Give the backbone structure.
Amino acid sequence: MSYEQFAYLYDRLMNDVPYDKWIQLIKKAASDYKVNGANLLDLACGTGELAIRLSQAGFQVTGVDLSEDMLSVAQAKTMEAGEAIFYLEQDMSQLEGLPVFDLVCICCDSINYLQTEDDVVNTFKSVYEHLDERGLFIFDVHSLYKMNHLFINQTYAVNDEDISLIWQCYEGDYPNSVEHDLSFFQLDDKTDMYIRYDELHFQRTYSVEQYREWLEQTGFAILKVEADFSDGAIEDSAERIFFYCKKK
């Protein structure tokens, strides 16, 4: 999935992402499950916002993303923050040349951008191969409820002085999938006119039971499944599902 121009506007348009909650969740999980080391692999790291905060929290972070544009933004932000993070452009379903890590995280529903079932299974296999025997794997996904009731046929908008976004969601070709039609407008200071950019993004999710089956077939033991940063049971209206796994 290429983000092209969207990569350079992502942080402005997605400033409501709960990064602080993610940091708290990862630190608590590392403590609760007695993860010994601090080497962390942040898959689908995007613009590096979470990777930088994890580094500032004391983790030794490696970031991987498929988008060259996203990684370019991440590199610049990391240098400005004065952090030491190694970034690599790779497909998370086909990781190569990396060591094993104490923690592997796939945050912010990034797994839902994988287009096929094989991509999801191969990502779990890649994580398994790069996770320490005593390590912890954490990821989240959109729930079926969110995909089918909060996305499909909905329109969202952001309107600031110099940048605006119209985000339309349509039912995808596969069950429990959605196409995000993004049109954003950025003010050009030189011409005092707005430049329009259009991108189409795809997401797909599966049932909790299906994710469980794939994880267990890969060799993971599922430690906990929870919803919405709540450390509680999964209700029908849950929007985001979290999985905590280790090797069997």
